């Protein structure tokens, strides 16, 4: 065994396999996008303020 292999396996258990926490091909989860309209409103207000600032103070 080379020194590199010895370093990498120093703290690993004998059988380092873990159960998969997110199985592939499982059912799709519903999207969580309920706060999207608040973000859109903030962006629209910011754009309107910039446009008004440019229009009123050329």
TrEMBL record:
Report the domain of life of the source organism.
Answer: Bacteria
* Transmembrane parts of this sequence: 37-57
The segments labelled Disordered in the record are: 1-34
Comp. bias (Basic and acidic residues): 1-24
| Entry keywords, A to Z | Membrane, Transmembrane, Transmembrane helix
State what protein this is by name: Uncharacterized protein
Organism expressing this protein natively: Streptomyces tremellae
């Amino acid at each position: 065994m080379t020194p590199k292999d010895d370093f990498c396996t120093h703290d690993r258990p004998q059988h380092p396999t873990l159960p998969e926490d997110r199985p592939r091909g499982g059912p799709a989860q519903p999207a969580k996008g309920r706060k999207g309209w608040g973000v859109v409103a903030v962006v629209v207000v910011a754009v309107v303020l910039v446009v008004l600032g440019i229009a009123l103070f050329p």
